[in-house]
């Protein structure tokens, strides 16, 4: 199988590229700079420009483009960068796919679990639940909508509504592990808020499952099927690292330090992967203990 990746230099993109190459797949990727190898093709999402030669022989396109949401306070300029980087990359990719003649590759498009907001009701959020009204939730609405040209042209499109992906090689688990290894880990707020998460192996597994299962289409929640709370997560991590959990990080302190971003840590996000399980995906690590164990043991 031949894959085209966009956003392949980040944590998830790098892990996917390594996994695919190790299994013998052909992998090419879009880059914004001048291509350095025959497997790189230039694109400029802000200008809507792509090198259409990148799509030659490609079976699956994975678009992971978008600036990080946790790397700074959400100033107006930061909000604009978060939103525009997602809309531009997705829209440019979708239009390029729609313009291809003949049979078209599958599009696996990144999205986020933040779509459902940070205030849960009496039942878990599923893929059919409506979007919340806050900034990140509405960002995912516009993000997914930007893929409409591809969907309208008959491209099989899969949206990965991804929760934090845990692995020792990158992402949010790296600073978590460091803090806990130093004995400084803490429960956030009262710890009762549910927090979605998924192992890197399962994230990679869902991507490959989406590519090879022709019935897979639409949105899927990528999170463990057995929900966990922040307190349960911190207890599991403390046990895995043989470190104590003695302190709490008060909500008021987090709100002052992180501003609006603190809502993503303190809010209750009760989400389940209903469609993913119904459509046949089987998790390698379905709960918090196995997910943390996998994150610590992967090489």
Which features does this protein show?
eight-stranded mixed sheet, alpha/beta, 299 residues, Rossmann fold
Would you kindly provide a written description of the structure presented here, covering whatever features stand out?
This protein has helices at 11-22, 76-98, 135-145, 148-152, 173-181, 200-212, 230-241, 251-258, 263-266, 274-278, 288-297, and strands at residues 2-6, 26-31, 40-44, 49-50, 60-63, 106-112, 157-162, 165-166, 186-188, 198-199, 218-222, 247-249. The two termini are 25 Å apart. Mean pLDDT is 88; it is low at 249-259. Helix 2 (76-98) packs parallel to helix 3 and helix 7 packs across helix 11. The protein has eleven helices and twelve strands. The longest helix is centred in the N-terminal third of the chain and has 23 residues, at 76-98. The strands form three sheets. The protein has an eight-stranded mixed beta sheet with strand order 4-3-2-1-5-6-7-11, sandwiched between helices. Strand 5, helix 2 (76-98) and strand 6 (106-112) form a beta-alpha-beta unit. It has 299 residues and is of the alpha/beta class. It has a single domain (2-170, 196-224, 270-284), classed as Rossmann fold (3-Layer(aba) Sandwich). Helices cover 37% and strands 17% of the residues. It is globular, with a radius of gyration of 19 Å.
Strand order of the largest sheet: 4-3-2-1-5-6-7-11
Into which percentage range does the β-strand content fall?
Answer: 15-25%
Mean pLDDT: 88
Q: How would you name the CATH homologous superfamily?
A: NAD(P)-binding Rossmann-like Domain
Gyration radius over CA: 19 Å
| Head-to-tail CA distance between termini | 25 Å
Count every helix, treating DSSP H or I runs of 4 or more residues as helices.
11
Count of the domains: 1
Provide the helix percentage. 25-40%
Largest sheet report: 8 strands, mixed
Helix-strand makeup class: alpha/beta
Shape: globular
CATH class: Alpha Beta
- Extract low-pLDDT stretches: 249-259
């Amino acid at each position: 199988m031949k894959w085209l990746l966009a956003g392949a230099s980040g944590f998830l993109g790098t892990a996917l590229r390594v996994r695919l190459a190790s299994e013998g797949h052909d992998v090419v990727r879009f880059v914004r700079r001048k291509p350095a190898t025959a497997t790189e093709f230039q694109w400029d999402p802000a200008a809507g420009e792509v090198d259409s030669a990148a799509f030659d022989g490609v079976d699956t396109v994975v678009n992971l483009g978008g600036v990080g949401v946790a790397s700074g306070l959400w100033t107006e300029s930061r909000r604009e960068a978060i939103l525009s980087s997602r809309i531009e990359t997705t829209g440019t990719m979708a239009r390029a796919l729609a313009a291809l003649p003949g049979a078209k590759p599958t599009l696996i498009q990144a999205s986020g679990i933040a779509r459902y907001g940070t205030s849960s009701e009496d039942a878990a959020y599923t893929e059919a639940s409506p979007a919340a009204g806050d900034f990140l939730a509405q960002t995912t609405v516009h993000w997914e909508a930007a893929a409409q040209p591809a969907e309208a042209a008959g491209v099989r499109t899969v949206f990965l509504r991804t929760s934090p992906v845990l692995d020792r090689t990158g992402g949010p688990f790296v600073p978590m592990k460091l803090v806990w290894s130093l004995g400084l880990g803490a429960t956030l707020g009262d710890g009762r808020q549910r927090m979605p998460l998924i192992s890197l192996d399962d994230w990679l597994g869902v991507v490959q499952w989406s590519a090879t299962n022709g019935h897979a289409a639409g949105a899927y929640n990528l999170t463990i099927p057995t929900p966990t709370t922040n307190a349960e997560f911190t207890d599991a991590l403390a046990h895995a690292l043989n470190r104590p959990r003695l302190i709490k990080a008060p909500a008021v302190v987090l709100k002052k330090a992180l501003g609006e971003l603190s809502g993503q840590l303190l809010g209750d996000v009760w989400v389940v992967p209903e469609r993913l399980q119904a459509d046949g995906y089987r998790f390698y690590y379905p709960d918090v203990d196995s997910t943390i164990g996998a994150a610590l043991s992967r090489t």
